[in-house]
Structure formats: structure tokens, C-alpha cells
Amino acid sequence: MLETSARLLRLLSLLQTRRDWSGADLADRLGVTDRTVRRDVDKLRSLGYPVHAVTGTAGGYRLGAGADLPPLLLDDEEAVAVAMCLRTASGGTIAGIEETSVRALAKLEQVLPSRLRNRVHSLQSITVPIHRGGPTVDPGTLTAIANACRDNERLRFDYRNHDGEETLRSVEPHRLVHTGRRWYLVAFDVDRDDWRTFRVDRLTPRIPTGPKFVPRDPPDKDLVAYTSYGLSNAAYQYQAVVTLHLSAEAAAEHVSPSAGVLEPIDENTCTLRVGANHLEGIAVWISMIGCDFKVHEPPELIERLRGLADRIGRAADTSN
Fold this sequence. Notes:
Helix 4 packs parallel to helix 6 and helix 10 (about 280-285) packs across helix 11. This protein has helices at about 5-15, 25-30, 35-45, 75-90, 100-110, 115-125, 140-150, 225-235, 250, 280-285, 300-315; strands at about 20, 50-55, 60-65, 155-160, 165-180, 185-190, 195-200, 205, 240-245, 260-265, 270-275, 295. The N and C termini lie far apart (about 90 Å). The protein has a five-stranded antiparallel sheet. A four-stranded antiparallel sheet has the order 10-11-9-12. A hairpin with a 4-residue loop joins strand 6 (about 185-190) and strand 7 (about 195-200). By secondary structure, the protein is an alpha+beta fold. It is elongated, with a radius of gyration of 25 Å. It contains eleven helices and twelve strands.
């Protein structure tokens, strides 16, 4: 059995990993009785941690928000990840948090053990952030969406599409996906009775959130691939399937998740799925990847490539 001080730290760590815990689950994880859990919860409360009782058939506990931020428990990997995320945030796509990220990073590094501080410094010394152009996202919006995803609460928001038209959407939020340049929300659209992907920089949440819902099975186990396909294929008139004579890892240096979907075939080839409204654009873009390739569909793309090859051949002919 854990000593009292170690058990309190373990209890605090468990409360930080999940929103709600039943007393029985906590007792099972800690290897103690329900009565001991109740005593330990009271000790945490006396130390300033806002542990709230959760009503229900089994009862339980929830670590809430207090007047002051209580100490957080991070393992080694979490501490390094948080430090690097704060470092990257200064040049990222979340608006208005550059200065606060630096302040938070300074506080974190002050208490990091030397072994972790050295790891963070090594990573920072070889990392050069490049500010990417494009829309930014208000951090409050991300927080509101993340909370709704965590708590399984419906989310209502005003959404602006690419034409500037605004609609009111009611969704069951599932996950936030970051492609490297933009944030997207994968959610079940209640009114349209289907899964949808929303650009976060185009939505404005309405507070408060709606009623709780029972989570549905996600549209795909790999939400990154699902989002990537929706952005690069589903929304376009034409969908091309191409074999690239390049490994999927090497092709990923030329094809971003929002530009196309890569599926490895073997060590030297992969399948590219990409969409566009103009076949000429796909033809030129694929040609610029810098490897041999074979187009499987659509057949119209093959004709565009033949025409493009003829024009390039005539342009390169110096005999005329």
C-alpha cells in the first residue's frame, strides 16, 4: 500500500487525467477502501485543491477550478511536451498568446529538473520557428471547443463558409484536428444528421453549451486521415488516384495533409488521392512533385497530362 503522501500525489494525478471518477474506481486504482479515498479527498481539499462531489447512483469526485491554480502533476514526457509546445506557440497559429507563452515557459523551466531542462534546451537549440501566413484562432475559442469535446456537450456556433455565408450550426463535437496550418473541428451535425469538418477560424461559439449527449462512434478510427481526405478530396469536383514512384515518407515532404492523402504501397511507391475543381491544376501539381507517376483515375486527367506533355515538348524543342 502506498504511503499517505505518495497516495495523495497519486490521487491528485488520477483526478487530473479524467473529468469524473467514482469513489469505487479511485479505491481500486489506489488499492485502498472507499473510506480512505474520502479521507484523502478531504486532505486534498484542506491543501486548497477544489475536489467536488459528483452526484449520481455511484457518487464520485471531480477536480474543479478554484480561486487559484493548484499545482499540476506532470510526468517527464508531459513536462517536455508542454515546454516545447509553449516554445512553438510563439510562432504558431493561435492569436495573442505569444507573450503569455514565454512567461509560462519561464515558470516551467525554473522548476524543471536539470535532466529535463537539458532535453528542452537541446530541442530548442535546433528548432527555428517559421511564422506561417494565414488565419489565426482565438485561444478562447479553442478552449471552449475542447471543453465541449471533453464533457460531451452540444456546441452551437455561427459558421462562415468560404463564400462568406453565415449559418447557425448545432453539433456534437468529437475532436479538434490540427493540420499544421489550421485547426479543424470534427463533429456530428445534428441538423444535417451527418459528420462534418469545420474550420475553427470560421466559427464563433455560442455560450453556454448545450445538453450532454452520448458519444457516437467516430466516422473513422484515423481522424487525421479522415480530415485530410475531406479537405483534399471530398469537397472538389474531381478526385484523382495516382501511384507515385516515391515512398510515402518522402512524398509527405511534398504533399501536406490538407493537399492530399498518401497511402503506402511498399518501400518505393505510394498512392496519392487528391481533389481539385480544375484538372489542369492537378496535372501541373503532380508533375512538380519530382518523381515518376501513373494516373489511374479520372481518365480526363490522363488526357490533360498528354496535352500538357505536348505543350512542354514543343516549348523545349529548340529546333524551331
